[in-house]
Amino acid sequence: MYLFKRSSDLKKHLDQVRKSNKSIGFVPTMGALHDGHLSLVQAGKKENDIVVCSIFVNPTQFNDPKDFEKYPITIEQDIKKLNDASTDILFLPSVEEMYPEGLAGNTHYEFGDLETILEGKFRPGHFQGVGRIVHKLLDIVQPHKLFMGQKDLQQCLIVRRLLELINSKVELVVCPTEREPSGLAMSSRNERLTPAARKKAAVIYQALEKLKHEFGNGLYFLESAREAFEELQREGFEPEYVDILVLENGHLHHISEPPGDHTVVAAVAAWIEGVRLIDNMVLQGRI
Ligand code: AMP
Hints:
Number of helices: 11
Low-confidence stretches: none
Number of strands: 10
Radius of gyration: 19 Å
Helix content: 25-40%
CATH topology of the largest domain: Rossmann fold
Order of helices and strands: EHEHEHHEHHHEHEHHHEEEE
CATH architecture of the largest domain: 3-Layer(aba) Sandwich
Bound molecules: adenosine monophosphate
Number of domains: 2
Distance between the termini: 32 Å
């Protein structure tokens, strides 16, 4: 595996790769890698000649400085895992490398209502930071395909919109959420939980499964979501939202009437032990 820290070196290398007509898959991450990340690398390998993975804890997408400070960094282990997964290239830039203009910046992406609900509502500015870093990384790597996880569903929709806004031909591949045996969605933040809370966190998955079941039985309105919210509270979580949403033309809106054939998803964000966990499940259709 090649490791690049400078974008100019990586670009030069990838120019050669493209010249030899090889396709490039790209997996952007913030490190503290787990099997969810590695499933994206595997998908990338399957669909491309080479896979580039980046590890960069992007400061501009953290609306909470404490969350940024506490973000786990396990770079030695990450390198080993990527190497074992036959990743071709790791891009490991510094903050200065990615933001020579400084963090303040004056970019703005028109994500519309996609960035004001769910994560956008509770993490103001988060998706502008995501847009900014993904745009920069795409300019450097210029992949054929971009691999992202459904675990961060709204992020996938934001990136899909970003690709439209910048007229990019890159294909976004949304990969399924990898879960721990308990059902808990794998996440770098799980590392910060005590074993007891990690065990309990499976309740989030169970709540989503219940919503899916109830949806299947025709119960898809607000009551099911409110009950799930209260169930999480009873289990000692501080939920921020439990929502059922309809995906229509790249936009998400709260369900208010029978959704017809549109894709329907349930999404949860909840705190436990000072750690914020998110998860979602498709109830109907596909992302
Ligand atoms: P992160 O390092 O958290 O920014 O995640 C990097 C990429 O891995 C994003 O596209 C995530 O959606 C994806 N990802 C994170 N957790 C999982 C998971 N449990 N299963 C599949 N993909 C995931």
